[in-house]
Design a protein that fits this description.
There is one protein chain. This protein is an alpha/beta fold. The protein has a domain at 18-82. It has three helices and four strands. Strands 1-2-3-4 form a four-stranded mixed beta sheet. α1 links the parallel β2 and β3 (56-61). The protein starts with 13 loop residues before the first strand and ends in an 18-residue tail after the last helix.
Length: 105
């Protein structure tokens, strides 16, 4: 995948490419409201503006997703809420965790 076409004026929060060449774009919502369909549409529009062919859109939302967005979800869209993310820590030992010290790591 040629990422040189990426538009430096278009801000995409998360952009990752796999070794096989698949491109993932993501967006995050940290507010108390659920994420709505416009979050996905905005991410898709930004990807199109930047001329990127996204294989999978990933949306992270602290407080879940609207019913409309859940109904719209397809195989090329991944929705992850705070509950999904917290489960990633289930098998992490206390020793492996970083201690927050109010600074960048």
């Amino acid at each position: 995948m040629n990422l040189k076409k990426y538009d430096k004026q278009t801000y995409i929060e998360i952009l990752a490419i796999t070794q096989s060449g698949k491109l993932f774009a993501g967006a995050c919502k940290y507010s108390k409201d659920v994420a709505k369909i416009n979050m996905l549409k905005t991410l898709q529009q930004k990807s199109q503006t930047a001329q990127l062919k996204i294989d999978n859109s990933i949306l992270f939302s602290k407080n879940g997703f609207s019913s409309q967005l859940l109904e719209y979800q397809d195989t090329q869209t991944t929705l992850l809420s705070g509950k999904h993310l917290s489960s990633l820590l289930d098998n992490v030992t206390q020793k492996e965790l970083l201690v927050y010290k109010n600074r960048k790591y």
